[in-house]
Amino acid sequence: MTRQRVVIIGAGFAGLSAARALGNSPCEVLLVNRENYHTFVPLLHQVATCGLAPEHIVYSIRNLIKKYSNIKFVTSEVDKIDLGNKIIEVNGVLITYDYLILACGSTSRFFGVPGAYEHSLTLKSLSNSVNIRNHLLHCFEVAQEEVRVSRQQQQLTFTIVGGGATGVEMAGELATLVYGTLSKDYPNLDFRRVRVLLLHSGERLLPDMPTRLSNYTARQLWQLGVEVQLNSRVTGVTENAVHLEDSRVIPCHTVIWTAGVEGDNKLNKWGLLTNRNNQVKVFSTLQVPEHPQVYAVGDLAALHDKQLPMVAPVAIQQGITAANNILRQIKGKNPQPLHYQHQGSMVIIGRHAAVAHIGKVKLTGFPAWLLWLVIHLACLPGNLNRLHVLISWGWIYFLREHPIRLIFRQDSLAKYQDVPLPNLDRVQGKD
Length: 431
Ligand SMILES: Cc1cc2nc3c(=O)[nH]c(=O)nc-3n(C[C@H](O)[C@H](O)[C@H](O)COP(=O)(O)OP(=O)(O)OC[C@H]3O[C@@H](n4cnc5c(N)ncnc54)[C@H](O)[C@@H]3O)c2cc1C
Description:
alpha/beta; FAD/NAD(P)-binding domain; oxidoreductase
């Protein structure tokens, strides 16, 4: 009997967990990912703020799947899908599938704010975080040479938009970097001119957490030197300023946008039905309407009956459910709905400061901080990565110095994009 072919697009938390659940099963799996590595997204902010080296929060996908003989991997960005004929195009080669799992994650959402897309930095990928690191350090280099005070203040004003988990973590770590480490690197700069602002349109930070934890978070950020500005909706971003709904204008050279996420524009092009947030609408079994052989999982999926947070545990559980449902379909059984188990949420703010909400337990301060470190270290793939990260954390903790204060030029990667795929003749078409 011909083996059924499952194609998985995206090897983030959702795609990788689906691939693993299909590992050594009777089907043939083709995993396609834009990069040849899996990114541990929850540590991106620490790369962006000079705490961790980029290599230490990613892991080779080939290494992760090498024990599964039925999984093949291709590094490529999928641009074309023909759902009607069950074909995807990878680097110009057409590949047929029996089942498809879409796990391409999300992109930043700018809510139509003029200039936000053009003039903001985002934190969604490893290259984004290296970009931010380069940009932050470059601002200090320029500010050091600037004699005009107003220009210097503009260079040294760092605005983070969005008071959700990513915005809070980024703001806390940035303030720690600036006032703890960079103040020693630039002894001639007047650090009273530096501002780290966290703008949030709502009444409290971390709106998904209990109010007590939101209030604690705001207090801790103020102590670190972050100006937390609530009820501050951004209405425009230019190269040199942020404009707010209440007519305030903040002159600044740096805007880091963490205010929202949405599905990729490609989803509509592929003929998928999306919601207002541009996520693919799926049934509780994670199947895409009208295409029972197609599943959407992780950040890009929107369940028709309930809203789930866009976090890694949801993506992992959805990936496993989609894989199990495909195995059921192959056996002629009905797919099962997702039974999501909420494992709680946690956010790190700074040294000995974090919040955690797990079941009925609400933790703040040192216990939450320690728990955050332990869980993130345990979940990071690769023992060598864990060792590197532990050493870097120890370095920052004991020496109060962020070790990776380097500006790297990023050469174009275009030359790598059309590399012929060595094993395509084996994955193209069916025997
Ligand atoms: C800065 C930041 C911090 C976060 N911190 C936490 C946290 O502490 N805890 C938590 O639970 N969640 C956290 N999240 C959310 C969590 O990272 C996401 O919910 C999770 O990554 C979603 O998993 P996913 O598999 O859907 O997408 P992703 O992990 O984003 O993976 C998508 C993959 O698809 C690939 N891809 C995309 N398009 C294509 C294409 N066309 N062709 C081929 N490949 C493609 C991408 O390269 C990527 O590898 C954080 C998110 C961010 C941005």
